Here is the input.
Amino acid sequence: MKVLGKKRVIDFIAQHADCKKAVEALILEIESATWKTPHDIKARYPKASIIDKSNVVFNICGNKYRIWLQITYQNGIAIIIKIGTHRDYDKWEIK
Here is the structure.
């Protein structure tokens, strides 16, 4: 998949260096993924939250951080909408 919005990740890692390895590993895995449906994500990441057919939230660093992706499966594009702490996530309005 092509990942868009990586600047959000770079900015977040600058403030939360402890998640650097985990976030970078997730991004690399997403880039090599060929997900066709949300079920493909759940098969690999059972704790991922599938919000609807195009939005998914991943837990990072033991649920300390979250990353929200909007995925267009047919085009192979994953857009990083937000990345934040668990507290930040509680304020997100995911639609």
